[in-house]
């Protein structure tokens, strides 16, 4: 038993899709979430910068006495996974759990991956999917506009701009006849209705938030670290615009976050 919180971080709001799944799956757990809203997005940054930001984000969460850390960010999980292996608490990203879920779902072995530019260029999902014993083909597409569209709230099923962008990104995957598509950024599940409409009923979408939450639950069981709280709690920290975060977070969580959003300031050269 360990009643300390689960630490979750992302460059912005996307990681809240993991928090939402965690709250449903593990309602007794306390959660501390950090969204680096002052430096979003990570997906357009250099590998060196992403690694530096990851180290800082993890250091902040460790200062909150968390028992494990989830990098709820496809970019971090793809580019800076080695940072997570050096932490003093168990840590995980979204790549391996999501890839495993995709391998279980595919029937024809043709898997598409949607991610940020940094995620796609890293090849992390391709590597994770190709290392299995299954004969699979992986087709990755960078979707740099999706994060901005989601954080701008342009997620309605009939939003013409978002639908047009999604059609452009998905066309290569449709041509390759993929039957499974990995949502390799935790922002992307909010676009699931639009993506499903374009891809059709024969394609399974793999929600990285759901896959990661399930993997976290298993990790805590293995370490005998599940909480025994009567009811779990969530605390939210951001590096900029806490009011905006509070308003937008409801879209990811499906409920308001109230007044429990705090802003932190990086010291000196940490920005």
How would you characterize this protein structure?
With 271 residues, the chain is an alpha/beta fold. It folds into two domains: 6-93 and 210-270, Rossmann fold; 95-208, Rossmann fold (3-Layer(aba) Sandwich). It is 44% helix and 16% strand. It is built from twelve helices and ten strands. The chain has helices spanning 16-25, 47-62, 74-79, 81-85, 95-105, 117-122, 124-130, 144-151, 160-175, 192-199, 208-222, 242-253; strands at residues 6-10, 31-35, 68-71, 91-92, 110-115, 137-142, 180-183, 204-207, 234-238, 261-263. The strands form two sheets. A six-stranded parallel beta sheet has the order 4-3-1-2-9-10, sandwiched between helices. A four-stranded parallel beta sheet has the order 6-5-7-8, with helices on both faces. Helix 10 links the parallel strand 7 (180-183) and strand 8 (204-207). It starts with 5 loop residues before the first strand and ends in an 8-residue tail after the last strand. The model has no long low-confidence stretch (mean pLDDT 92).
Largest sheet: 6 strands, parallel
Strand content: 15-25%
CATH topology of the largest domain: Rossmann fold
Subunit organisation of the chains: single chain
Shape: globular
What fraction, in percent, of the residue positions are helical? 40-55%
Total discrete domains:
2
Q: Report the average pLDDT across residues.
A: 92
Termini distance?
A: 36 Å
Element pattern in H and E: EHEHEHHEHEHHEHHEHEHEHE
Radius of gyration: 18 Å
> How does CATH name the architecture of the largest domain?
3-Layer(aba) Sandwich
Which consecutive residue ranges, at least 5 long each, have pLDDT under 50?
none
* SS-based class: alpha/beta
Sheet with the most strands: spatial strand order: 4-3-1-2-9-10
